[in-house]
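Hi U.,

Before I forget, here's the chain from the pilot set. I'm dumping it here mostly so it's searchable later in email.
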Amino acid sequence: MNKTMKRALLIVGGVAVACGVVWGILTLARNARRGNVDVYAVSDFSMTNYWGDTSQTSGMVSTDQMQKIFLSDTQKVKQVYVKEGQTVRKGDKLLSYDTTLTALDIERAQIDYERQQLQQETAKKELERLLLAQNQEELQAAIDELTAQIDELIKKNQEQWYDANSVPIPSITTVEGKATALQGNGSKEEPLYFNWNTEDSLSEENLIKLLPVDAEEAYVVLVIRKDNRSQHQPVAYITLRLELESVSPITPEPDSSGTGTQSGTGADTGSEPADGPDTETGEGGQTTDTPVTSEQKLNYYYENLPGIEWQDPEVTTDEIRELQKELEELQKLLEESYPKEELIKMIRDKNKEIAQMDTSIKLAKVNLEKVKKEVGSDTVYSELEGTVKAVRDPNSGDFTGSEAVVEVSGGGGYYIDGALSELELGTVSVGGTVQVNSWMTGASCEGEIVEISDYPTDNANSWSDGNSNVSYYPFKVFVSEEANLQEGDWVEMSYQNTAGDDGNTMYLESMFIRSENGKSYVMARGENGKLEKRWVQTGRNLWGSYTQIRGGLTVDDFVAFPYGRDVAEGAGTTEATPDKLYNGM
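Structure:
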């Protein structure tokens, strides 16, 4: 290597070292100027022992090689055809009964089922509003969008209505010499309304047709509409008082030339008549006094009639009314401006309410199917080949309504289908037990998981997870025939979900969690009191507000709100209360 090359390398190396020193100095200076970052106790923004950790799912009971016949409150046994220990074949009569149910009971059950469905849909809409209210800007944007949608629908409906109903306004047309008013009785409080064609003049000949029969005075409103089209929006009003004036006929006297007449001037009304398009008047505004008859003439006067307006046609549809109701609810949420912690509680409560409604809906559906079945038939037949295991007398004092009147067994039991989240696949296995509770009878029993599907389903009745981004896998539970269940009954199944390392789990408010390259992290206080990027294992999402922490963080840690110029690894920390964070957001 020659001297020139060595000198060049030394120069480059020296420049690099100098740049490194300068960068280090700048970094130290920047960190020195950076203030401490507030950190908050995880325990203040998290929850443990969430009820959802005991996972729940619901399903319908089916039977395998067994049949139990229960009586409802409206059924009475008419005759039992079998005895205990008897062997029966499929299609044999088991019993018959009388029922007091009618088609009206079916209709009532149907209404109850639909009513509960509607209540749940309403609750789901309320939940959507609460989720939206967590961000005031998004809430305002939704209000603006909904307002514009309503205005557009109203405008569209008005235009369609006008196009369908509007015809050109004709000149004054009459029936037996009188025009027909749109509304009113002619009093000052309820004047007569007439569509008025702007090509018609305010002449005595036209106006006399507006005066009711045998009336000497009337208040009228002439409605001038856009494009002289009926039903189009009014663009102007002319408000008048019409008055018939008696005129005494005057016998004409010859003038000096022996020809010509003098006309009467009429009675003094005490007010100035209005200008008419066909009259020549001074500033006083008196009309021409061409008499209608030889004894009467019509005067008209402009009158100030307060409150004159024409109602547009009713074009508000059910769709628009629903949107207006939704708009009112959103505006109410914006005005209330609930604190974040209160909104989270409201969201949590609404989710539970919806889950409870789900139970009520399924019970109502089961009841509807039972009512339909009762009304449709009065005889029950065996559905399998087997042995009659029990026959009970419903009139006996030992009989309870929760027992089956007749039981037939072919050596089977009950099966119930449920669903579990993909996050639970490693924590629930074949051979595990579940607790089963009947919604219809309240009976409780234990079942065994006998099958877990390898393929997810699109239709899972699971309450165990609020995360719509995960898949659900069907599983099957077997319950022995001794259990007091009914075919077609809806039941709730509970099973322990040990998703955490120690069977416990924690949910942290989602605003503290960020992601990078598909992984989640929080800005947590390290052992040295400085901020550090802490990678965490996450699970399910609750209500869009909480995220399950399955590892990497404990309730004893402190975390920072992970946004802002000063929030960086190595920054100093200061413990703060939740109020400081909420007030600063």
